[in-house]
């Protein structure tokens, strides 16, 4: 046991002085630890330093907290993040080689709050691994003035102290957070927010909405400490690289009243709430949202997010929230309500059924599904021509297409869109009958989202009666365009050129179904020798 001695920090390591040997000695002899390794000052009979023994004194409070079982890739910021909600942090020591760390709080009260919380209310996780928090036998971490520690440690401490000071001046911690997503290029949904915010602690309720053309959410935690940790950890982070920035404040609300469990709101404490969809509720799906209580069941556990501590492994260009490749595709591909029994998926292939086999072609499906992502291949099944497989470029594009196109009417029939078990669409083998029902669009010049961060991501909307037209040549008149759209079989209700740019216009068809057919037939329509029309669904009306 360490009596009357401090734990001294030297260049990111430690040196122990004034040790009395006993069952709870940290090291077997005077030693220095540097970069996680132990350098002994005299030979060891076993040619190896004895293992660091774990603090077992859970009862005597100390302002130094001992954290065990940390992963090898952990950084000082990961350790500091555990303590930020409880008060000011004055020092940190990371022993990577021993899978443990020490965190010094400003006073025993803060340390006691931290230990009590993690032992009774919330299990701390660092980068996917559960860690264990207890009081240390050491009363302080003494930093030698001549050796102020590593630059990274000092930077992490300064950042933590700045965050704590900001919280002290802002005031008003609450269990409910108001979240605004700035610079939204990729789709963000309730499920995406749940995945991110549940990494900090248990999420009770989420309500999402759009205000001033900005996606926003209210997120409720069970206690102020978890909400504060989420705000300090996630505020200012990018969900994807250079976009979809989280702006987090405390809400004035103290409790969220969730009436429906669907893609806009969810009460994870009450899975029996109705969906708000009369059709689904009448089929008995009202209480089945328990399937969605943890939409990421079965995925690997994820650690607490921190700023520069993560980098994307694969899949989407993630910002601070990098996940393993399989998790990334499954998590950030989510975009909308899933029926009970319909699993979240990370694949790129969709099964489209109930097609009008007399009218639908691979090119028609390429154009329609291409509104929501880049279509790579389309296969209309040879023996069941009212079914097709559509392969998208990215999993999140496939989910976006599923969300927006399932149950819309195409050529008089309500199509169904579901995840496919196939990982890709196979081209027919040589000599195999196909009749032109399978087509590869990999090299098509008509892909809308080839450029990363394309502006087209900001203009993705569900099918609507109003279409947005662009790339209109100056020689084409309103009557020319209206006539062309009427020739698709629908009626034109209204038309309007953009006042400041006649290359763009809005055209309103008689119904959503007419609009869908018009988009299929008119996208890439040649209006002049060198001009092809661009058509997409619009959120506006005329």
Description of the structure:
The chain is built from eleven helices and 30 strands. With 542 residues, the protein is of the alpha+beta class. Strands 15-16-12-14-13-17 form a six-stranded antiparallel β-sheet. Strands 4-3-2-1-11 form a five-stranded mixed β-sheet, with no helix packed on it. Helix 8 packs across helix 11. The model is unreliable at 1-6, 8-57, 145-149, 166-172 and 280-345 (pLDDT under 50).
Q: How many DSSP E strands?
A: 30
Largest sheet: 6 strands, antiparallel
Report the mean per-residue pLDDT as an integer: 75
Globally, the shape reads elongated
Instruction: Evaluate the radius of gyration.
Output: 29 Å
Query: Residue share in helices?
Result: 10-25%
User: What distance lies between the first and last C-alpha atoms, to the nearest angstrom?
Assistant: 78 Å
Low-confidence runs: 1-6, 8-57, 145-149, 166-172, 280-345
The number of helical segments is 11
Q: Which structural class matches the secondary elements?
A: alpha+beta
Please report which band the strand proportion falls in: under 5%, 5-15%, 15-25%, 25-35%, 35-45% or over 45%. Answer: 25-35%
Strand line-up across the major sheet: 15-16-12-14-13-17
Oligomeric form: single chain
